[in-house]
Amino acid sequence: MSASRSVPIPASLAAQADRVGARPSWWLTLRRSNRTLLGLAVVLTVAALTILAPVIDRYDPTFGDFDNILAGPSTAHIFGTDNFGRDVFARVIYGYRVSLTVGVVSVLAAVALGLPLGLLAGYFGSLVDNLIMRPLDLLMSFPAILLAITLVAIFGAKTRVTILALALIYFPIMARVLRGAVITVRGEEYVEAARAIGAKPLRVMLRHVLPNSLGPLVVQASISMGIAILIEAALSFIGLGTQPPDPSLGGMLAEGRDFMREAPWAVTFPGLAIMLAVLGFNLLGDGLRDLIAAERG
Amino acid sequence: MLVAYIARRFLLTIPAMLAMSIVVFFIVRLVPGDPATAILGIRASPDAVAVLREELRLNDPVWVQYGHWLGNVLQGDLGVDYNSHEPIRDKLLTRFPVTLELALLAMLLSAMMAIPLGVLAATRRGMADHGATALGLVGISIPDFWLGVMLILLMALVLGWLPSSGYVPLRESVWGNLSHMLLPAFTLSLNLAAVLTRTTRAAVLDVLNRPYVRTARAKGLRERAVVVGHVLKNAAVPIVTVMGLQLGYVLGGAVIIEQIFSLPGVGRLTLNAVLERNYPVIQGAVLLITFVFMVVNILTDSLYAVLDPRVRLSGR
Fold first, then answer.
1. pLDDT less than 70: residues of chain A
2. How much is the ipTM here?
């Protein structure tokens, strides 16, 4: 098999065969890891709650029922109500909307920025690598939460600024993770073979190197989603993220602190909700990492 | 040779610190609004504003302003607080020890939990391994500010065992200080312990199959002596690296915990400066935190070189 790979044409065929062969086993591989499946289930549940929020919710998250202020959990309000009589469950679900939107958009932006940089730095090495990575190292030497707070100081406390801050925190990490994988892959035989038959660098990078280097980036993206949700909640908690009356999980915690003695549910459930979502993304990321490691053998 | 290694690393941070100082300086210039007006308030007379603008050298070209500012910073003059008119250096110097104590205490608690658990997870597997996995996952998924709030609710409001917030200097009362520090330090430590447990477990597992461990066992050493004397010593490099990185992050990132527990540290100072738009304080605090972060990283790397002589050789 390895002998045939050094013959020009089968090289791309072999790469293709790998991909075709991998596809049916994708689900089988996934099923081997309970951790990944559990993580996926949690993430999909949270996503479903978010998308279906208007359908499942019996209450408007901003509607205050003043006859039911600080009511404990009951069949009418399964997570209880807050100091304005707002349904905590409804607010948790709408809070998830903000969390997930911030997570998905910031991570996608970070991948969009980091992917080309990491690919170029890893593939070309030497001067290109230094030109790209040194400034990114500098950006990474800045404590994340501090960077976020500084940006808020300049641009104001808005959800959009949170997304910008997270994207800035993450894109050097994405670039570095991909760069590492690219450095390993670029020395593989099929890459050499593709170059030998005269494929242009761009084609080699996009068709051969990139598809085989994406694993670690996917893992990192999943874990980053979890951290993004944590940081968004933290910023909203200290008043520098999503602003009230919009429901956000961090904001709910901050408001709930003032009456947590009378209504502990108003701080307990939003916190548990954050933890569940973050746990889901961490399980998924961890599981995928193990699966990739097992496949590499 | 070690001294040369450390000196070289310090020289390498000079360009990074310079770049950071430019960023910090110009970030503040990006902000709409005039610093002189910010200091004097919007009702100040135009003449007073003009005088202060001249005093602050705001009419100079921006590069001249930067050079002047940098010159002052290098002499330890970080400027004056817009609101209280105190020198920012003094403010930072009184607040930094609080942040440092919090960070060190959190690191200590984290190491006390994580290292034994990580070693047990690697050597005994079974229950300890499950425990380590659970701590690892919960510890990194739990929002620390929420944990802080819940701990205040339980330990201070319901049980009344510990004070909910505030700070007592160590000089005044050791117990008073520790009782105020315990909850915030524990809150911070859980997250650190999660990562450290994983690192310890992986590092120990990696070393456990090395030939010298087999030799130590073969010559009849007790398992305890093998683990402490041979395994842990060789697994120390990754553990120390992670702890160093964590110390840097805790020193810069304890903003929210300081806020929840009303600890007068650098993080809380920074946060309040952001909320008040007190830019010279933000500049000073960010510069200090970045500097400390880099120094901690260098010290970690140097410790690395002490623990593993190969690092020194290759770094030459």
1. 1-28, 141, 296-297
2. 0.79
